[in-house]
Amino acid sequence: MAKIEIYTTSICPFCHAAKKLLTDKGADFLEISLTQEPHLRDRMVERANGGRTVPQIFINDAHIGGCDDLYALDSKGELDPLLG
Ligand SMILES: N[C@@H](CCC(=O)N[C@@H](CS)C(=O)NCC(=O)O)C(=O)O
Fold first, then answer.
1. pLDDT: is 84 or 64 the higher one?
2. pTM, whole model, 2 decimals?
3. Following CA atoms 72, 74, 79, 81 in sequence, which dihedral angle do they give, to the nearest 10 degrees?
4. Alpha-carbon gap, residue 49 to 62, rounded angstroms
5. Nearest CA to ligand 1 atom 9
6. CATH code at 66?
7. pLDDT of 1 over the 90 cut
8. Which end of the chain, C or N, has fewer beta carbons within 10 A?
């Protein structure tokens, strides 16, 4: 099973949309809430190669990007193989 991490904030429609797609696919993910743990933002930005918006999504430690990137991968049929 893939290791999926998603950095979020609580008031973030893109975060909710990304989580919905993963949930609809039955994928388990670790949510890292920057609302609850704001000190982890710097680590997120570092891992996301400077990406500062939320969500930032990682699958098996590879940076996927944000919500749009996740949906784009799905549209190309490339998300399901990553999720295993
Ligand atoms: N295109 C991005 C948009 C992400 C975005 O704009 N997220 C907002 C929150 S919903 C954000 O991070 N705004 C800047 C900030 O909160 O610092 C995606 O698909 O993930």
1. 64
2. 0.97
3. -140
4. 11
5. 12
6. 3.40.30.10
7. no
8. N
CA of 20 from ligand 1 middle (Å) equals 16
Ranges of beta strands (E only) in 1-84 are 4-8, 30-33, 56-59, 62-65
Q: Are the beta carbons of 41 and 35 closer than 8 angstroms?
A: no
- Ligand 1 atom 16, closest CA: 53
Number of domains in the chain: 1
> Which tokens sit at 61?
């430690």
Structural domain of residue 58, as residue ranges? 4-83
**pLDDT per position as a tens digit, 19-31:** 999 999 999 999 9
Q: How far from the centroid of its chain's Cα atoms is residue 60's Cα?
A: 11
